[in-house]
Design brief:
The complex is a heterodimer of chains A (297) and B (281). Chain A has 297 residues and is mainly α. Chain A has a single domain, classed as MetI-like fold. Chain A has a two-stranded antiparallel ribbon with strand order 1-2. In chain A, strand 1 and strand 2 form a beta hairpin. Chain B has a domain of 154 residues: MetI-like fold (Orthogonal Bundle). In chain B, helix 3 packs across helix 13 and helix 4 runs antiparallel to helix 12. Classes of the chains: A mainly alpha (297), B mainly alpha (281).
Chain lengths: 297, 281
């Protein structure tokens, strides 16, 4: 009796503070966010007007939301392709190929991942700066006239220009994941392949790739989720969604609606859209990628 | 491995790609260093890749450190990061220990509840969080930031620590019980020390995220003397653009990169472990 009472106290002391914390600062804000999406509220008053699904109706008609969703998926698609391609090449290079300085590359390529997104955004703004920027000065070396493109200032170049820093900042993290996956492949598989006279490329296709595919799937899902949930921070630092809302993504539009224009209810509705789309996308992708492995096997 | 034939052309291509990417990663840092030592004339008239001219403008650093309040941004960031790391380590280690070592009703559910929070876009909760902190009187307060960052660091910490505690052998724990130690005592003096390396990985990973965090910091604090480093930097770069203070801006960027770079180099092994531990979802 006494023993079990003491055990209960132990559980309570070890579990409850954490759970309480989690409820107050994580669960409550999310549920409250969903609830807010049914209200019209500027945040300034105590009074909130219940308007049912009006925010959702407005959202479906809002052309900027359309742009934002398209931009988000533009980033998702090209980040997945760019990051996975380069991270795979680099991971294979530092594990399976006899390149010199393997460890150095592993250490160096992760550096962008430890730098704040604010610093990354500011640095890349100066790469793209029309007058002082690195890119235009470099391009001008090959042209008679000075290149003066405002990369972040033109609607058709702004979005692709945001893609490069996102890829640049992501490679190292996924490279480390893939390196770990490759290193866990039993070496006798490669020895057997060597005895069969399999070329490096052949070994990659029939040993490395199938055995790292599981980790690649995890990485792809991770890129998709973090992009939909968090890519807006870089966008906000670099363009604030401009020019003319052409680089708006869902998160930046939420931030602008909530903290610049004080449409708290509408901003919360965009938040629900992010939640639904990011869960739906990862769920569908998980299905698609699962089918892939069955076909490969 | 030595037997494998390597195509010399693909070998060359691999090297070129590796060197190009090395340049893409290292050069911006060098560029920032050079920029931080230049004056405006050099920015406007010389090529961006030109070396800084003598005398080097070290004043750019003292300028941002003193006049722009980098001193206080640094102090705030250190307090917020250290506080959140300690609190979140304590809260996640205790829960992870129970979830990993004891069979309790609803333990699985609780575990997955914490995990699922890693998939939820935090920005959805940002608006309510602002008003919650406002009602608690914690807007524009360092403790407010610590509470929020601690909560955001819990799921990752619990996730990694559960798998860490699961991997520890049962014998040591049993020996402690036989010696008459209670659960809490066993946790504190036997299990926690064994989990040290896992705790360091979690602390470093969460610490880097918190040190670099911008959005919540910018929403929950709007007093310049309480800005964290990323928020201060973002505000400063807006002002400096209008005043064309390029040199000081680059000095500010460099100052904020240096601490994370040092932490990264020192704890490089733990960071690699933290990355792989966190992604085996």
């Amino acid at each position: 009796m006494k023993q079990s009472a003491r055990r209960r106290i132990f559980y309570a002391v070890f579990l409850l503070p954490t759970f309480l914390f989690f409820c107050v600062f994580t669960l409550y804000p999310i549920f409250r966010g969903v609830q807010l999406s049914f209200f019209d509220w500027s945040g300034g008053t105590k009074e909130m007007d219940f308007i049912g699904l009006d925010n959702y109706r407005e959202m479906l008609r809002d052309p900027i939301v359309g742009t934002a969703v398209a931009n988000d998926y533009f980033l998702v698609l090209f980040k997945v392709i760019g990051i996975m391609l380069l991270a795979t090449i680099f991971a294979v290079a530092v594990t399976r190929l006899n390149v010199r300085g393997k460890n150095l590359y592993r250490v160096l390529f992760f550096i962008p991942n430890v730098i704040s997104v604010v610093v990354i955004g500011v640095l890349w703004r100066y790469v793209y700066n029309p007058n002082l920027g690195f890119l235009n000065s470099f391009l001008s070396l090959f042209t008679a006239e000075r290149v003066q493109t405002a990369w972040l200032g033109e609607p058709h170049t702004a979005m692709p220009s945001l893609l490069w820093p996102s890829i640049w900042a992501g490679i190292g993290f996924y490279m480390i994941l893939l390196v770990a996956a490759i290193l866990s492949i039993p070496s006798d598989l490669y020895e057997a392949a060597d005895l069969d006279g399999a070329s490096q490329w052949r070994q990659f296709l029939s040993v490395t790739l199938p055995l790292m595919w599981e980790q690649m799937k995890v990485s792809i899902l991770h890129i998709v989720m973090t992009t939909l949930n968090g890519s807006f921070i870089l966008v906000w630092i670099m363009t604030e969604g401009g020019p003319d809302n052409s680089t708006q993504v869902m998160g930046s539009y939420l931030y602008q609606m909530g903290f610049r224009q004080y449409h708290m209810g509408y901003a919360a509705t965009i938040g629900v859209l992010i939640l639904v789309l990011s869960l739906l996308t990862t769920l569908i992708l998980q299905r698609v990628l699962k089918r892939d492995t069955i076909e490969m096997a | 491995m030595m037997l494998t034939k390597q195509n010399p052309l693909s070998r060359l291509l691999t090297y070129i790609l590796l060197l190009l990417w090395t340049a893409a990663v290292v050069y911006p840092l060098v560029w920032t260093l050079f920029g931080s030592l230049k004056n405006n004339t050099q920015f406007m008239l010389k090529k961006p890749w030109a070396l800084p001219e003598f005398p080097l403008l070290w004043e750019n650093f003292t300028y941002v450190w003193q006049k722009y309040g980098f001193q206080s941004f640094f102090a705030n960031s250190i307090m917020v990061t250290a506080g959140s790391i300690l609190l979140s380590l304590f809260l996640s280690a205790t829960t992870a220990y129970v979830l990993a070592r004891f069979k309790i009703k609803g333990g699985q559910v609780l575990y997955y509840l914490y995990l699922s929070a890693m998939m939820i876009p935090m920005i959805l909760g940002l608006i309510p969080l602002f008003f919650l902190l406002n009602d608690m009187g914690l807007i524009n307060k360092i403790p407010g930031l610590i509470l929020v960052y601690t909560a955001s660091a819990l799921p990752f910490g619990i996730f990694v620590m559960v798998s860490f505690f699961k991997s520890l052998p049962k014998e040591l724990e049993e020996a402690a019980y036989i010696d008459g130690a209670g659960h809490a005592r066993t946790f504190w003096s036997v299990m926690l020390p064994l989990a040290r390396s896992g705790m360091i990985s979690v602390g470093i990973m969460n610490g880097l995220n918190i040190w670099n965090e911008y959005i919540m910091g910018s929403v929950l604090v709007n007093k310049p003397n309480l800005y964290t480093l990323p928020v201060g930097l973002a505000v400063m770069q807006n002002e400096m653009q209008y005043r064309t203070e390029w040199g000081p801006l680059f000095a500010g960027l460099l100052l904020s990169i240096l601490p994370v770079l040092i932490v990264y180099i020192v704890f490089q092994r733990h960071i690699a472990e933290g990355v792989t531990a966190g992604a085996v979802k």
